[in-house]
């Protein structure tokens, strides 16, 4: 089987425990205003940076090492991806690391994801899936036995605001998280924190109230950063934020303390 991969990042230390290889699968049904990987949103197409300079020579594709600066998105087979992952297996074993499947939204390519997970488990590689949770439950159910840890994003509790700033309702996301927790899977909830969007007390209180019913390993608060801003220009896309949406340290600490007081293990950063 094959799928579209936008990047394979080796020696990653923010996408789960230990040293990891993160495989970014292309395509996402959300369109978050703060997304720093806009090249991963469009499914099944190769994205060209600086489209206007393209002369259709095809060199970017033939030379692509999965993280070329000129393009994002390459059709790879399961064997191609596994070969790349297994290059660092020794580091996984020594550091307690493994592979993380991220995106975009990895469930946009569920069959490909499943095949990769099955192969990784049979090679005894620790597996993490980093998801927005926006996918039919049957997709999650189909791969759950091959995943050691889920990184699960919760963005905004108010459904109207969620719809406005991500393009989708959060109903299915919250429902899937609840179901996943009932299967006793290991879950770390990740909350991207964006000033003026979800860092208000009301949203944090609602998040805490919802998460109290969920079994979690912990919570990671991921402060907004503007590193993706430049990519929007290169992809001829509109960036809707100003770049000044990183919450102040004092706000992040106060939010961290709110989660701690509610009994959660929480850290700032991935
Ligand atoms: S869910 Fe993640 S990849 Fe998808 S648009 Fe939002 S931030 Fe970007």
UniProtKB/TrEMBL annotation:
GO MF term list: 4 iron, 4 sulfur cluster binding; metal ion binding; oxidoreductase activity
Reaction catalysis annotation: glycyl-[protein] + reduced [flavodoxin] + S-adenosyl-L-methionine = glycin-2-yl radical-[protein] + semiquinone [flavodoxin] + 5'-deoxyadenosine + L-methionine + H(+)
Gene3D superfamilies for this protein: Aldolase class I
Pfam families documented for this protein: Radical_SAM
Keyword check for Isomerase: no
Domain 4Fe-4S ferredoxin-type: 45-74
Keywords: 4Fe-4S, Iron, Iron-sulfur, Metal-binding, Oxidoreductase, S-adenosyl-L-methionine
Requisite cofactors: [4Fe-4S] cluster
Sequence ranges assigned to domain Radical SAM core in this UniProt record: 14-265
Family of this protein: Belongs to the organic radical-activating enzymes family.
Name under which the protein is recorded: Glycyl-radical enzyme activating protein
Source organism phylogeny: Bacteria, Bacillati, Bacillota, Clostridia, Eubacteriales
């Amino acid at each position: 089987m094959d799928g579209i991969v936008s990047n394979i990042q080796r020696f990653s230390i923010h996408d789960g425990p230990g040293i990891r290889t993160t495989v970014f699968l292309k395509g996402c049904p959300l369109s978050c205003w703060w997304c720093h990987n806009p090249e991963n949103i469009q499914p099944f197409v190769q994205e060209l940076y600086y489209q206007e300079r393209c002369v259709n020579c095809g060199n970017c594709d033939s030379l692509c090492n999965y993280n070329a600066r000129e393009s994002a998105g390459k059709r790879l087979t399961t064997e191609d991806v596994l070969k790349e992952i297994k290059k660092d297996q020794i580091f996984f074993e020594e550091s307690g690391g493994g592979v993380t499947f991220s995106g975009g939204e990895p469930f946009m390519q569920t069959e490909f994801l499943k095949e990769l997970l099955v192969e990784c488990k049979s090679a005894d590689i620790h597996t993490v899936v980093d998801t927005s949770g926006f996918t039919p439950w049957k997709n999650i159910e189909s791969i759950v036995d091959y995943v050691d840890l889920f990184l699960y994003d919760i963005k905004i509790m108010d459904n109207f605001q969620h719809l406005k700033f991500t393009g989708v309702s959060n109903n299915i996301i919250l429902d899937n998280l609840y179901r996943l927790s009932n299967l006793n899977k290991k879950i770390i909830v990740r909350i991207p924190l964006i000033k003026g969007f979800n860092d208000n007390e009301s949203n944090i209180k609602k998040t805490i109230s919802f998460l109290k019913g969920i079994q979690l390993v912990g919570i990671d608060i991921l402060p907004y950063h503007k590193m993706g801003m430049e990519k929007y220009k290169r992809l001829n896309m509109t960036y809707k934020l100003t770049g000044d949406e990183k919450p102040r340290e004092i706000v992040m600490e106060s939010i961290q303390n709110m989660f701690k007081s509610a009994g959660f293990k929480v850290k700032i950063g991935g």
